[in-house]
Specification:
The protein has helices at residues 2-29, 35-40, 64-85, 91-122, 139-145, 148-160, 165-203, 206-224; strands spanning 49-53, 124-128, 133-136. With 225 residues, it is mainly α. A hairpin with a 4-residue loop joins β2 (124-128) and β3 (133-136). 28% of the residues are buried.
Length: 225
């Protein structure tokens, strides 16, 4: 059981980090197909922006905020998906759905966030030509998934459980033990064992070299102006 709850998510996280970090940067982030999604959900974006690699790679001094991000995304997706697909079911059925959606989120969707962390720690930034400002990559993902809506969605899920307060309380405690702990452990293990390696791998890629040259061009242009 330990291998299942920890091994499968870690395998997906490692696959995303080892195979996807440079590919996603080159084929998705730099080509900007996600700008259409930002337009649809009305999140801030800039038509005059480009990506550059600046500064020195830096790992975060604390993982507290990243742990919060992982737990928030898992709870949000699991709560909303369960309310949508298993509403008015028995408490046991809802809890099963919740755990299933949470486990899938941790294994398949949160690795996208791990890519964002790699770009952030490598020094990848979005440069706005008009505003002459730099911002972190993937800020909109955190804005979209992490916030007060997480607590609200989880509370709605808890209140939807049939069987009374005792059943709801027992179900919540079980979910914290069975689902939240893997979120924390997987995030910690990934950062301690592999994250720094994937950041270094990104920094020596051909795409990273191109972005460094672009950053030098921007810096020279700013100094000349």
């Amino acid at each position: 059981m330990t291998f299942f709850f920890l091994g499968i998510p870690l395998a997906f996280w490692r696959l995303a980090g080892s195979r996807g970090t440079e590919r996603v940067l080159r084929h998705i982030i730099m080509r900007k197909p996600h700008e259409r999604l930002l337009r649809l959900i009305h999140l801030p974006r800039s038509e005059s922006s480009e990506y550059v690699l600046i500064g020195s790679p830096r790992l975060p001094p604390s993982l507290a905020w990243r742990l919060i991000q992982v737990v928030s995304i898992v709870l949000l997706i699991a709560s909303n998906a369960t309310l949508l697909l298993a509403a008015n079911s028995s408490a046991m059925t809802e809890v099963t759905y919740f755990f299933g959606f949470g486990f899938v989120s941790l294994s398949v969707l949160v690795p996208i966030l791990a890519l964002v962390w790699a770009y952030e720690d490598a020094g990848l930034r979005r440069y706005d030509n008009k505003e002459n400002t730099l911002s972190k990559v993937g800020t909109w993902i955190v804005q979209f998934f992490v916030g007060t809506g997480v607590a609200s969605a989880f509370l709605k899920f808890v209140l939807s459980l049939s069987g009374g307060t005792a059943v709801a309380g027992g179900a919540v405690l079980a979910l914290i033990i069975v689902l939240i702990f893997p979120c924390l452990i997987v995030t910690l293990l990934y950062h301690r064992q592999w994250h720094a390696k994937y950041v270094r791998k990104l920094l020596v890629s051909r795409t990273a070299q191109e972005l460094r040259r672009k950053a030098l061009t921007i810096t020279d242009g700013s100094q000349n102006s």
